[in-house]
Amino acid sequence: MSADEGTVMASRLRRGTAAAAIAASVALALSGCIVMPPPLAPGASGGPGPSTPQAGQPLDFTPTGEDVDAALEPYYAQDVDWTLCAGGYTCGTIDAPMDWFTPEDGRSIEVSLIVRPADGEVWGSMLYNPGGPGASGLDYVQQYADYLVAPSVLEHYNLVGFDPRGVSRSTPITCYDDPRTLYDYLWEIPEDVPADPLSDEALQQQLDSAAEFGDACLQFTGEALQFMGTEQAASDMDLMRALLGEEQLQYLGVSYGTLLGATYADLFPEHVGRFVLDAAVAPDATDADGTLFQAGGFELALRNWMADCLSTDGCPFTAADVDGGMQQVGTLLSDLEASPLDASDGRRLGSSSMFTAVAANLYSPQQWGTLRDVFADVLAGDPDSAFAQADRYYGVNPDGTFADNSFEALIGVNCLDAPAVTDFDEVRANAQAIQQVAPTLWRQFSGMSTCAAWPFEATREPHVITAPGAEPIIVIGGLNDPATPYEQSVSLSEQLESGVLITVDAEGHSQYNQGNACVDDPVNEYFLTGTAPTANLDC
Predict the structure, then answer these.
(1) The pTM is what?
(2) Domain 1-39+68-533 sits in which CATH superfamily?
(3) For residue range 471-496, what is the model confidence (pLDDT) as tens digits?
């Protein structure tokens, strides 16, 4: 899985139907995939400025040296070995308590960071999180720093990417010793699937598979698995702040990164600096709420794609209108459920894997052309391009290995962040509600969550976050965002005492630094001057 989509797609994988569902919400046990950043706007540049460190000279930081509890002193006073890494960036690894609520036990984990130095006069450091949960902020900053924030911001801020605990280089969550195990979990279509995917038999089958997966994660990750929730990761961010020498934390979070940022603001409002939360997750959304949000979001995104497709030469659908086109999609998914297509590598494309390929290309209008091609191929009986897109989403390498642990991390974090629905009747009732908002895709969002059989109970209850006393926090929401639907951005901005909302009438997931001056100018102004909009904006 490449790094949520600026966001996050997640598979509520239920081996049985292997049905996928997408979720950026912390409340979901879904896997969040991140869309690669778009190119810079024409004429923009992000080249190094006059004060970029010379080769062989890593940045150094003076910790704040603040007064903390005795059990935390070894962490806040640690001497970080900052080293020069690829591209003239600075890398470091910090030790953090395994459990921030019992730091006195001495157990610790490692968290990895990378710093892209400011191009000019340094005003401070800014943390960046691309979403997931499960996306590597370290990789994002290393590979895409010049696309993530405006050149004017990079001029004065060191941009800090980090792998949250459980992700990639930070005490990673691991759920297998042979990558083929996960590969088969994602793609295998068993022969003994009950006809009714919401029957007691089917739901029990899904629950048993979830238990098997959770047990494997515990076996290969160990005791750290129970301490991978968002509140723990937000506490790590405060440690980063102090070790970077920042009294206030400057932060840009996308998708799940908005929940991480909001959680930080909830725990440490006095240390909130210039915060921007793009494509927001509602922190009070339950498991059922989050699934319902996303089902409606992807249904809307697919309808918008269909409208564009039907107006484009070469559209593989022949309906007279969008409703008819959506019916054709529904028929295709049903046909694949009943009769999967054989790919050239021996895999069978069912409705779940097809949905993954579809959803992966709804995060940005730039991907809509690819989706037309995928549909055309599948309608012609060729599933190879659909599997290529699904593999890209999950970060599957040509040899069947995985580029990272983003899928495992997404599940591991989300399962601790909100209680899952375990009652079969409630699962079926939720499916009925989902069908109302997503009549084409509802089956892909219905069923038993992987988290329903997780080895540990959730350590976080979804709740309203107000962050009293925090500096202004900008929340950005796109009206047609599929992964974190707009309603969630509205909710978060209204919950935060200092929240201000930028509404963007646009497709896609995440809106900052994508060439819309109505969005970019006030955000950049806030990062550079501390002046936030005094009222909500419509763009």
Answers:
(1) 0.91
(2) Alpha/Beta hydrolase fold, catalytic domain (3.40.50.1820)
(3) 999 999 999 999 999 999 999 999 99
